[in-house]
Every structure is written in structure tokens, then in C-alpha cells.
Amino acid sequence: MNESTSSLKLEEKSQIIPITSQEEKEIHRVFELLCGYQQKVRIREEIKELNTWLSVNKLRVLNQITSGYSVDEQKILESNTASANRIEELHKELQEVETKPDKKITCGDVMEMFKFLKEKITRKEVEEMIWEVDENLDECIDWQEFRLMFNRNIMDRTGLEPSRMFNLTQFLIYDTNNNGLVSVDETMNLLYARYGRAKMEVKLKELFGEDMHETGRQGGEITFSKFLKAVEKVQMNTFLSTTKGRIATQNKAFGKTTKGAGH
């Protein structure tokens, strides 16, 4: 290796930044979001349904009274009380899930998140995602495993680190308003903190491409599917720029050449 190549390698290594304080905060937010996500969605949906029923029932009874119909006040009171009690129980259940000390991300939690993001995926694929980062093989992801996964990926310069969970995590970090989309404005602060102003624009273009435009107060938004295609392309280019990647490309080209020569 000559001196210029050696200095370039050292420069690249010096540019590798560990997890920033802002990223640490966002990683923890996403971990908290995913832990028990399936259960939290179920509880919140039931609370929403009960509140809707109470509102509709109140209007229905009011219409009956104003229309001169007789109503069974005792029965209505019992029904409303039962619904209100159930809502209270559900809020307590939700609080228990959110304050659980030994939180972990399960396969069901990740499946539910993909459902929210409108991304088709099989349970087997999600189980493989978890297995890639499950250090203690308990089929779940705890905080230490989650943080380690993120750190390994941001420090990776080969494009070979298992990245499926990282890609989901990164998207959820950028999606600060939890609407299932990522905007230019949402990503700018984190990209600036990691790459600085010079590289931020390049990274934004890698993610958003032609969607990198202003729409009102927010920048152009992309779905998880589009985000995934963009980051997978970047990861592939990262691998192809390594020695192993160049060898793999050469071997593939050589294979095509010899195959063509054999005809």
C-alpha cells in the first residue's frame, strides 16, 4: 500500500463518528416506541372504539329524548359506566406496558410496525431480522442489543453488516411526527449532526432523489418502501467500493466472459 492510499484510509477511519448524543436520544425514543408496540396498538384501538361508542350513544339517546321517545335511563347509565370502567382499565394496562422495566422488542411488535408502514413482510423475515441482532438468543431485542445494532451499522464501512433492523430504526428516527413518512425537514438536523453541512446535501439527495423539494412548511416526503430502496442502494455501493466488493464484481464479470467464450 503506497503512502497516499494509506493516508486516505486513515482519513476515512477518522471520519467515522460514534453515536452522537442526539442519535442516542432518538434511538431510545424508537426503542420505547417499538417495545410492546403490538399490545399498545391493540389497547389504543379499543380505547378509541369505546370513546367513539360513548359519543355516538350519547347523541342517539339525546335524539330519542328530543323526539319524545322514552329511554331506559338505568340501562343507559349501566352501559356507559361499564364502558367508562373498561376505558380506565385499558389506560392502566397501557401505563403498565409503557413503564415495564425489562422492555424488549418482539416479532409481533415489528410485524405491527410494518403493518403501520404499509410494508408487506412475512413473519419468517421478521424473525430473521431479530435473529441478526439477538445476541442472547431469546428471540427478542433488548436495549443493549438495540443500541449495539445501531452502533455497528453506523461504524460499518463494508456494507456487509446486517442492516434490516437498522434501516427500520433509521426510518423511525427520521419520522419524528410518527406519520409513517419521512420528510427532508425531519432528516436535516440528524444528518447535519453526523455528516456536517458539506455532506448533508449529498445524503439528502441519496435518500430523497427527485422528491427533495419543499411542500409548504415540510420538505418532500417519502414512504418506508422508497426510503428502503434508497438506503439499500447506498449500502450496495458501499460494499462495491471495498476490496471484497471489487473482487466480487471482477469475478462476476470474469464469469460472464468465460460463459460467453464457451458458446
How far is the first residue's CA from the last residue's CA? 40 Å
Which H/E pattern describes the elements?
A: HHHHHHHHEHEEEHH
Biggest sheet character: 2 strands, antiparallel
Number of helical elements: 11
Instruction: Provide the β-strand percentage band.
Output: under 5%
What's the mean pLDDT score? Answer: 84
Class derived from helix and strand content: mainly alpha
Classify the helix fraction into a percent range: over 70%
Unreliable spans: 1-14
Give the beta-strand count. Answer: 4
Sheet with most strands: strand arrangement: 1-4
Principal-axes shape call: elongated
Compute the gyration radius: what is it? 25 Å
What are the defining features of this structure?
263 residues; two-stranded antiparallel sheet; single chain; disordered N terminus; mainly alpha
